[in-house]
Write a structure and sequence with these properties.
By secondary structure, the chain is an alpha+beta fold.
Amino acid sequence: MPGAAWRAGEDEFLAGERVKLRSAVREAMGEFIGELAKPWSLFATLTFDPFAIGMAGADCEVTAERRAELAVPAVSRWCAMRRFAYFLKHASKAVGRPTVGVIALEPHMSGQPHGHGLLVTEGGVVGGDISELSRLWRESRGNGWIRLEEPHSQQDVTSYCAKYMAKDASELVFSSALARGATLGRTL
């Protein structure tokens, strides 16, 4: 049937165009976030691990077995977003100077949410900033580990944004100063 062949060709063409459009949107979103408050000071990966909190001192194998038994995420997406917002809200106090950021929510293969973020601290990373920010994250009940590392270049930041932060704009948490359009050069 000639109409069916045309429809199949049209569906294939549209599917390819959707892939191109998603790729272009991700790239543009990554560039937007990368330029938002440059230069960024830190990459951040934030996780949740309620078993590590509730089973302090337990054998690693027991903890792993308990995690494997978990049928649904222990921390909801809504809760994860709220915890990211709390972390960003209190980051300035933790390091003693203005700090802003953006964190994207991403589900792990296990279904547990985790976050990928970028932080900028006025004056860059100094002294115990990483340990203070790490402590801020870990002190909240149910939060897991946090990895903070300094980017090597602006290209690293752009690549990071395109890979982790540009997937779904509805699942981004911005510091309130960034949401208002402020930068560290202006009043936070």
